[in-house]
Design brief:
The chain has eight helices and 14 strands. It is α/β, with parallel strands linked by helices. The chain has a seven-stranded mixed sheet, sandwiched between helices. The longest helix is centred in the N-terminal third of the chain and has 13 residues, at about 15-25. The relative contact order is 0.11.
Length: about 280
Amino acid sequence: MNYYKVRFECTPCTEDITDLLAAFLADLGFESFEPDASGLTAYIQASEYSEKAVKEVIDDFPMESSIKFESEFVESRNWNEEWEKHYFQPIVIAGECVVHSSFHKEVPVAKYDILIDPKMAFGTGHHATTSQMVRYVLDIDDIDGKSVIDMGTGTGILAILCKMRGAGDVVGIEIDPGAFENAVENAALNRQSVEFICGDASSLSGLQPADIFLANINRNVITSDISRYSEKIKPGGMLLLSGFYTSDIPVVMAAAEPLGFSLDKVTEDGDHWAALRLIKK
């Protein structure tokens, strides 16, 4: 299908500004977002794009930032081919897990071999947040038979790895319909039985509490929804978080500690991206 690629330049630009802008754009039908140091690149199906609606979002934007944008029509293409050409190469994480796609011909050998055809979904293991979450999953000693919820599953990479490592019931939740479909496809490619739900944190209401809860999203979503996460984690259960900077850790912990979570481990990688392991009392 055809898309519009819309580039937003923000002055000043902060994570809060791009997070909020992405949230408003999602309400307009934008499906995929690539934030960076100077702004945000977003994608929307051509049939859904309205320049007038985008201008209204910018005119009514509640934070102090000058936002300029330009759009580019992108014809339908083979997204796997685009990833192969420009982004995605096989990656080995912690010496134990290799992530690659079906178009790769030479793939390193590792204990856990994950096949991901990403299309436009986030989560190939290359970003520091995903690779840190993969390391945390690999670090779990007693995962056999444990129940898992993966919030914001993206390509499904973390849910798939949990299942490969012997987890019991694994549920992945994804708000973006395209990413949800991609996660379902990736689980099938890896012959792993994962239940996927297309929805937001409200989808948790029908689930039983899990032993392990994963959320690689962003600071604002995590702090907004963490009380819902807490309700779906067993006492003594584990909460693995990423998608935010080291400087955001106090904000995340301020939301987590009143709910009975204690900080068990902190890691940092790349451009100050952080990941946390919390234990529920």
